[in-house]
Design brief:
peroxiredoxin activity, peroxidase, redox-active center, 7-stranded mixed beta sheet, alpha+beta
């Protein structure tokens, strides 16, 4: 089962949208970030709206050096047929701009810990949840978002989280609630004021609290 910081496995699997219908994940990712997006089933309403939005936003993820990978327990033939519906809903021409891994035996989904035990298919077998798994260039899991099958993901939030993760990988900062690129960030509490001044040349400001503890330190977005 995946946890933050664990190494994501080098998955070798059947997949649509790649030569020979086979994917070797590490080769596919190269030195990029990766976002694995699992969904419960092909040809279902919520999943179709989600991947349609992912297709529309694929250029934004590409700008951030992040490759998208879909995933479900359907087979490759199903993925290929469904991809046409996804692109139609997205109002885009051409092929779906990312592969979809096929895991009909549910082995990989079980190993990754992304099965939804409460949601079952017509045969009564559990399906995959709606996961968004952020994989860094070092192949480690940088972030995990898990939703049940009944709740669709907001891909604008998925993209925002990627921005925050990439920023925190590069600078000793954390992003507050509702942060978007260009907004002020927080200095990580593990840094002393002296260390923060050295690592954040744009400086920072402290906000006083009734407790007298000066832990709220705001800094300009260092990437802006």
């Amino acid at each position: 089962m995946l946890v933050l910081g664990s190494t994501f496995p080098d998955v070798h699997a059947d997949a649509s949208g790649v030569p020979g219908d086979k994917i070797k994940l590490y080769d596919f990712l190269g030195d990029s970030w990766g976002l694995l997006m699992s969904h419960p089933h092909d040809f279902t309403p919520v999943c179709t709206t989600e991947l349609a939005q992912a297709a529309r936003m694929a250029p934004e993820f590409a700008k951030r050096n992040c490759k998208l990978i879909g995933f479900s327990c359907d087979d490759v033939s199903s993925h290929k047929g469904w991809a046409k519906d996804v692109m139609s809903v997205a109002k885009l021409s051409g092929d779906l701009p990312f592969p979809i891994i096929a895991d009909p035996e549910r082995k990989l989904a079980t190993d990754l810990g992304i099965m939804d035990p409460e949601e079952k298919d017509k045969a009564g077998i559990p399906v995959t949840c709606r996961a968004a798994i952020y994989i860094g260039p070092d192949r480690r899991v940088k972030g995990l978002i898990l939703y049940p099958a009944t709740v669709g993901r907001n891909f604008k939030e998925v993209l925002r989280a990627l921005d925050a993760l990439q920023l925190a990988e590069k600078y000793p900062v954390a992003t507050p609630e509702g942060w978007f690129p260009g907004d002020k960030v927080m200095v990580q509490p593990t840094l002393t004021d002296e260390e923060a001044k050295a690592k954040l040349p744009k400086g920072f400001e402290k906000k006083e609290c009734p407790s007298g503890k000066n832990y709220l330190r705001y800094a300009p977005d260092p990437s802006a």
